[in-house]
Amino acid sequence: MVGTTRAMSPEQALGQAIDARSDIFSLGSLLYELASGRPAFDGGTPAEIMHRVAGCRAVPVWQVNPRLPLALVRVIERCMARRPADRYQTAAEVASALRSPELAGGTAVATRALAATALYWRTREHWLAAAGAVLALAALVASAVYFGWLSSPAPRVVAVLPATTDTSAEGAALAATAVTHAIAEHLARLEGIVTISGREVRAIATEDRRPTDIARELGANELVEASLTPGEGGRLWRVTLSRVEGTSGKMLWSRTVETAADDLFVLQDRVTTTLEDGYRGFSTARSAPPREASPAALRAFLEATTRLEGGRSSPGHREEISRLRSAIATSPRYLDPVVNLAAIHRYLYATTHDAAHRDEMDRLLARALELAPEDPQVQLVQVAALVAKGESEAAAERARELTRQRPGDPSAWAELGKTLAALGRYDEAERALRRAYALRPAWQTLYFLADVRRARGDYPAARETLAPILAAAPANTSALAKLAEVEMYAGDFARSEALYREVVAQRETKSDLVNLGNAVFFQGRYQEAAELYQRATTLATSDPLPMANLADALLVQGRQQEAAQAYRRALALCTEQLDAGRRTRTLLDLRARCLAHLGLGEQAVLAVQEAIREFPDNPETVFVAALVAAINGDDTSCLAWTRRAIQLHAPRAWFATPDFHRLQANPAFRELVASAR
Questions:
Q1: What is the rounded average pLDDT of the residues 233-257?
Q2: Residue 320 located in a structural domain
Q3: Statement: residue 133 has pLDDT above 60
Q4: Which of 213, 421, 656, 674 has its CA 20 to 30 A from that of 146?
């Protein structure tokens, strides 16, 4: 066995037959090390390294250095694919990829050097040229430094753990929420600090988890802990505040203070003043706003927050809405309840499509922007509200503006990535999400990044992106559901079904039931799929998607009258929401699909043309154009739209539905579908 252990390919480490593609893997390993500053595979002994190489278990290079340009990440990932068939097949292909304008970036010398280096690896005789290859590759690293790919200081990410108390005394839970809120508010005003708090932290910070595990999963550099114990017969609270280093669990600072137990304002002020001592050296980015809350308003706000963050929300959030409205009525200039209530109505509108929630969301956001137009939380809720209303272009522009104002805020970059993904601009979305991950390596960012890679048709990369989430938390239902979606798009319907059933056993949302129904539908079990879609319609009565899918399942069973009734109901829901101004891609696509199935071919063509005008590069919209053409019997248009959809990475599975069965006899159609992933 010949070769440097760390640069071996998996097949070489396993003693299998090798060819030029093994050298391409080795080139990828060198590129990885130069781009990240560490080997792709390392260990204490050559045997340990070979074991890791054989398993192809390298941390994705973009996780080690999220600042790398997307084009370089793709070259390295493809060079280092586990299966030789998935790699570049020749050195010329590598050289071509390294001539990408993104890599050139104004430095053609570096690009030519990399291309020349790739050619050195064409045959086994050039192993001795490895030193020269590394020198040539160094040109790219120099360029990366020049263009800032390898730099940019990240902020300090601090997770605020929920304050704990060992007493069930009246007011203890409310006091704990007051302390947690005061800590988060103070840290959010410090320069160079990004704060994580609320439900995101509560979901991770369970009693049985170590601080280092919590910090790792949240992507936090440190944690702030707080505990309350009663003193002097319940007249005082003894509050202990601590800073804990995320990697080692080492205590960085701790202080215990006492304060009156009967005044929540005094409690919060005492916590804030004490915390200032703990974070000396961090300047204030923005001063604390004037206190606009009455004691009654603060109490109502904290009561709603305690319920929301503790996972004890009432049906339809009615109790929380009531308390927040009470806080606003008592203190109209109190920002926190206005922002939280706007966020609740945004969520309810996104899930129910009820126009009343949209109107209330808009009214509250206008009020929040009047009170604090520069507040980052207000701006983030505004972006999410625009997305919920289907105004993705406006949302992306607002998110972009926020990243310019706050370039070190990972939440701003994450929102930008999500809105760009909704617009089908996947390369831009990936860059924004990788920037968010560089600022804060959180699992939620990996989740959205996996979805972008799934949408782009890169299913192996999507799986790899989800792997660290599930390794850290195997029961993470969000990551499991996303992996199930990836497998369905990749065409492994049985695997997708198994994963979705695991998810539905833990939760039962409309989306989970619809997707489980899709996995079953693609396996030809149409009645079972119909039952799942029917269950989904009961969870979201205003959502046309489960109703349209139910119609599909009824139609393929020959139940034409029931299917037509379901299509008409789905079409009515689409029309109602589109007329109300909610112009989302899904609604436009569904309207065209329903019109086609109802035999309204000309109207369906006009509807799909409207969707294409707004979302010309979205694979799902282009697929719907192919679907409408197939239903209308327009084979020429169907072939053209199918070709375009596959160019946009539409998965092969979409073209396996009964609507396309007639076209299976067409050799051109079969050839196109065979070329899809």
A1: 92
A2: no
A3: no
A4: 421
